[in-house]
Design goal:
By secondary structure, the chain is an all-alpha fold. It has ten helices and two strands, in the order αααβαααβαααα. The chain has a two-stranded parallel ribbon with strand order 1-2. The radius of gyration is 25 Å and the shape is elongated. Keywords: Cell membrane, Membrane, Protein transport, Translocation, Transmembrane, Transmembrane helix, Transport. It comes from Arthrobacter subterraneus. This is Sec-independent protein translocase protein TatC. It is found in: Cell membrane; Membrane.
């Protein structure tokens, strides 16, 4: 079996297809191990986390004076819920590992200097992911209160726990992934897939899509819920564009210097021949 060359012996990270598949398998295995460990930790903190997640529904009874309760509609539902929440917690706990493994697989062909910049930027990805989850958590009580306000008088909200938790986890995951999009954008620029000018030309449609996503993911009673999500995403998007433009300029400068060196080296033999 051919051995994948190390970074020192292979600074540009060039690999055959088989070596790429081997590296993908290894990185998926490491990410899976981290997810399993995170899920085990999630089992131990399941009860306090479930208490915190159910707090918005309890507040409907205590603050708004309406009838609302979470109920399990099946014998195996409590166990299924424990697995679902534990895996989600494992995904969050293991995020530094799987984000790094994903980035390391995408960027093996980067030069040493570019890889250092990339690693510095990926260090921001984990706090951004956590920030997205936290922002979703802040918006959740308002979203639950507004959505249950449509319940007619004389009716109670007996909410299925799996449905409620699925809604909540999808909301939080959507926020977390949305906060990672600028990192992905910059990563695609680093590997040469897109250029900053291309992204900048489509800023209008991007702003519209971000606002649309914010309106759908943050169903509040007013515009503030959408505002809380849209503004950070827009700021991150334009910061990512700025970094992409700077990287494009640096790449163009390096290419021009390399072309000049090649041209100078090509002219040297001809001058010697003239002598």
């Amino acid at each position: 079996m051919p051995r994948v060359k190390g970074r020192k012996a292979n600074p540009e990270g060039r690999m055959a297809l088989k070596e790429h598949l081997i590296e993908a398998r290894n990185r998926l295995f490491k990410s899976g191990i981290a997810l399993v460990i995170g899920t085990v930790i999630g089992f131990f903190i399941y009860n306090p986390v479930l208490e915190a997640l159910s707090e918005p529904v309890r507040n409907i009874n205590e603050i708004d004076g309406r009838n609302a309760a979470l109920n399990f509609d099946g014998v195996g539902s409590p166990f299924d819920l424990m697995i679902q929440i534990s895996v989600f917690l494992g995904l969050v706990i293991a995020s530094p590992v799987w984000l790094y493994q994903l980035w390391a697989f995408i960027t093996p062909g980067l030069r040493v200097k570019e890889r250092r910049i990339a690693l510095g930027f990926i260090a921001v990805a984990v706090p951004l992911f956590i920030a997205g989850l936290y922002l979703a958590w802040l918006i959740l009580p308002s979203a639950v209160r507004v959505l249950t306000d449509f319940t007619p008088a004389g009716f109670a909200n007996l909410i299925s726990v799996p449905v409620y938790i699925t809604f909540l986890l999808r909301l939080m995951l959507a926020f977390g992934i949305a906060f990672l999009l600028p990192v992905v954008l910059f990563g695609l620029n680093l590997v040469g897939v897109i250029k900053g000018k291309q992204v900048l030309k489509s800023w209008r449609i991007t702003v519209f899509l971000i606002c649309l996503f914010a309106a759908m993911a943050a169903p509040g009673g007013d515009a503030m819920s959408m505002f809380y999500l849209a503004v950070p995403l827009l700021l991150l998007f334009f910061v990512a564009i700025g970094l992409c433009l700077l990287n494009d300029k640096r790449r163009e400068k390096r290419t021009a210097e390399r072309d000049a060196d090649i041209e100078a080296n090509a002219d040297t033999p001809s001058r010697l021949d003239e002598v």
